[in-house]
Amino acid sequence: MGLWPGRTDNRWAQRSSTAWVPHTPPPISTNDLGPLVVIVGLFAGFLFAFHYADSPRLFRAVDHANSYLRPIFELRRAVVPELEALVVTADDQAALTAVATLTPRGYHPVPAVSARQALKLLSGGGHKWKLAVIDSSLPEYKLLPEAFKKVLPAGSIIVVQGHRGAQAVSRVLLERLNPPL
User: For residue 50, how far is the Cα from the chain centroid?
Assistant: First the structure.
């Protein structure tokens, strides 16, 4: 008599803790199929490539996909805004505050650290000045407003007191650039 009543073969030889269990081979796991899937995928890719290697349809499909995907992955080019603002101050904190306030509002700030440098930039060509921010604590401040009035309208000239700090500069710029509603 075999291990199981009525059986004489040893297929039922595995014993669990409570009963005899038939021996079944383990199923194929998905971990074992990984290399097979890669090989089949490579083979299908090679067949596709060799079959359509000279086909104009393939080239049109690749060109269409390229024209669709190129704008998505293309780098954005920086555009310099046309609104240029001349910032004249010797105080670094006031200059940084003016730049940080003007840049998000579409202006391209051009800093000048002295009245002479500002007059040189103002008289030189190539700039379309839309705004001027002048620090009244500069030694040669008296020369600047008259020179700027020849180029800009009076509403586009903002005089700040840089020696009062960056917050005062920011407050004056925000009041002038964002009028109350």
Answer: 40
Q: What is the pLDDT of residues 116-141, one digit of tens each?
A: 888 888 887 767 888 888 888 888 88
Q: Please tell me the distance from the alpha carbon of residue 53 to that of residue 62, in angstroms, as a whole number.
A: 12
How far is it, in rounded angstroms, from Cα 146 to Cα 154?
A: 10
Torsion, Cα of 109, 111, 116, 120 (10° steps): -50
CB contact at 8 A, 136 and 159: yes
Residue reference for tokens 């008599």: 1
What one-letter code names the amino acid at 162?
G
d(CA 143, CA 57): 71
For 35, phi then psi, to 5°, come to -65, -35
Lookup: tokens for 37: 């899937």
What b-and-e string marks burial along 48-66, b requiring 16 or more CB atoms within 10 Å of the CB?
A: eeeeeeeeeeeeeeeeeee
pTM: 0.52
42 or 181: which leads in pLDDT: 42
Residue/partner pairs of 72-77 with CB below 8 Å, 24 or more apart = none
**Is beta strand 107-112 parallel, antiparallel or unpaired with respect to 20-21?**
unpaired
Q: What is the 3-state secondary structure (H, E, C) of 100-164?
A: HHHHHHCEEEEEECCHHHHHHHHHCCCCCEEEEEEECCCCCHHHHHHHHHHHCCHHHEEEECHHH
User: Rounded CA gap, 143 and 162, in Å?
Assistant: 17
